[in-house]
Amino acid sequence: MKTENATPTDTVGGTGNGPPAPPDRDHDRARRAERADLVAAAAGVLLVTAAVVVGHVIQNRDGSLRAQWPPLLASWDPHLGPGTPAALIMAVLVVAHGPTLAARLPWRGLLAAAWAGSTAWVFSMALIDGWHRGVAKRLTTKHEYLRVIDRFEDIPATLRDFTNHIVIGEPGNWPAHVAGHPPGATLTFVWLDRIGLGGGAWAAVFCVVVGSSGVLAALITVRVLAGERLARRAAPFLVLAPAAVWAGVSADGYFAAVAAWSVALLALAATRRVRFPAVAAVGGGLLFGWTCYLSYGLGLMAAVLLAALVLARTARPVPWFLLGGLVVPVAFTLAGFNWWTAYHLLVERYYQGAGGVRPYGYWVWANLACATLAAGLAAVAGLRRSAVAAPGAVRTLRSGPPAASPEGRLALLVLAALAALLAADLSGMSKAETERIWQPFLLWLLPATALLPRRGVRWWLAASAIPALLVNHLLWTGW
Prior knowledge:
Blueprint: H1 9-12, H2 23-62, E1 75-76, H3 83-104, H4 107-127, H5 131-136, H6 155-161, H7 176-179, H8 183-194, H9 200-212, H10 214-226, H11 228-239, H12 244-247, H13 251-271, H14 277-292, H15 302-312, H16 318-335, H17 339-352, H18 360-375, H19 377-399, H20 406-426, H21 434-437, H22 439-442, H23 457-474, E2 475-476
Antiparallel strand pairs: 1-2
């Protein structure tokens, strides 16, 4: 597909609908939009600052936040590591050359470069903490999945007995991460062990490499739903995502990629941009089913899936998607694992631990400060532009052809992900640690950066990378 021509939104941040404005009016509107972007970014900085200041007051007073450096689950630990030079080089290269390469590379070359760049960025950030502490041992701590691999020797029997070990106090209760997720998460690492890729190092490499492929899924989805031009403009921001601080190394990055490919396959099927749309729809459903058995909260990704169908103006892939989506739930149910029973037991377990102590009144807004740090200030400014573009896009979709502008379609996709994130926030089941837990939602906020003006793109990239580098060098971001 050819790259689309520029639209008025390149300079004014509008929806691209209606007759062109006079040059002077265009210029004034663009300047106002850019000032509003800076105000949005400043609001993000204030939100983070307030969360830090208020959080430290509460934590020092009574310890109820259960976080040493609120709002992040981290501790003060200024340090350098072998990944420091690589991370700095990656940041400089992407800021300096990322936008140009994204505009000029062939599409397939861009996808390959984006995956490689994202993988390198995440690995370099992880290696700031060193190979042993930052990579090889990350998934082997007392809370992690790899601590229970030996208890899955008989997988069917373990699945039948899984719910009996979720609540604290039961004999042999699962570690926090195993109890907090459906067994698909742990089974991933069990199967890696079975094929000879056991241990923390292989698990970490798997999570980073597979997790970084989520960038490709997001780019493909944006391209088919909102056009190649916007996908190319979002690419450097997806590569240099601040969430790399927590994606390296975390299983949540892997979860994000699985969920993202579910959306991408459904979008391809809905727009009929693949040779066999029905197969793509079944594959998307299969991955969404697996997503729901990786993390209980990721059923909320249905909001992004629904947005893809709305933007494609079709429900044609839905039967095929549902067919694929039933495979994983049916398989686990037949194997003896009841998702709903496990979820209700998880809620009980959650309130037995830190979730029962952490105050909702703080975390319901401080979680958004965590999301701001993990998505970056450029995404915050992009969300502002998405909110401005969305009403016009909705009106256009409701009135029928012509279709909403590419900017409007992208805005609706991004805001669907934001709605899912806000639903997770309001649920009270995500008090703290959202910089890591919300990676599947945060990935879909980053394409909003494509709505920012081109002339300031490098400054916005720097505004995303520098805070991430500071967080990774000044704090120990454990789980």
